Amino acid sequence: xxxxxxxxxxxxxxxxxxxxxxxxxxxxxxxxxxxxxxxxxxxxxxxxxxxxxxxxxxxxxxxxxxxxxxxxxxxxxxxxxxxxxxxxxxxxxxxxxxxxxxxxxxxxxxxxxxxxxxxxxxxxxxxxxxxxxxxxxxxxxxxxxxx
Length: 147
Known about the structure:
The protein is an alpha+beta fold. It has helices spanning 49-54, 65-79, 85-102, 109-132, and strands spanning 11-15, 18-24, 30-35, 42-44, 60-63. A hairpin with a 2-residue loop joins β1 (11-15) and β2 (18-24). α2 packs across α4 and α3 (85-102) runs antiparallel to α4. The protein has one domain (11-144). The chain has a five-stranded antiparallel β-sheet. The protein is built from four helices and five strands.
């Protein structure tokens, strides 16, 4: 499957508004992972790879690494609940967004930059915790990719 012309791995997608990443395997193939909104971890969805790759447009779109990180953290912050530093940062983002909404205005450039920075940070923190817990799809280094 990774022999598809023009497919560079890792690759990032939005599949029906859900973040999906495709990564190379040691054997030269690929593995696909979709964010679980129940756990914040990664579900294997390699069976969807062809559908995603050949259905780009409509409900499937290509994301940059940073767009993938931002979408992932948006969803984690929206759907997950918990305690600790990551969740405190999710609450900070929510408070910034709620304040702008209450004032019926768009986020300022400074607020947007702050939220993006927080989400890159929470992505790394969450992914590192997933790695410690043994999630094979976790990869905190994606946040370092500013593609």
